[in-house]
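# step 3/5: fold
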Amino acid sequence: VQLQASGGGLAQPGGSLRLSCLASGRPFRVNALEWHRQAPGKQRELVAVISSGGTTNYADSVKGRFTISGDTAKKTAYLQMNSLNPEDSAVYYCAADIYYHNDADEPVVQRAWGQGTLVTVSS
């Protein structure tokens, strides 16, 4: 199973970017899709989560500016980032707990991370 994140780039302060995350691979399901970020010298932090049924949660630092959307059944998630500021500069990762059956037909849960996409906010 792979998570592929894309959409990062350079934005000016006050600008916008939209990130995409697509999960693919062997048959599996997810109950939630997450966006995390890690700035240089800082710990990775959870930014936003979308759960089955469409429930969303956000870090306080991005509430009102970022919107997570997507579909756990389709294994896709998006992060619309508006009113960006330099403090939003980081590598953004999508992540999920992946549920599937192995070759012995045993249930397995695996933590999966995308490769990260760099967001730079600068004038």
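# step 4/5: annotate
DSSP finds no helices and twelve strands in the chain.
# step 5/5: archive (pending)
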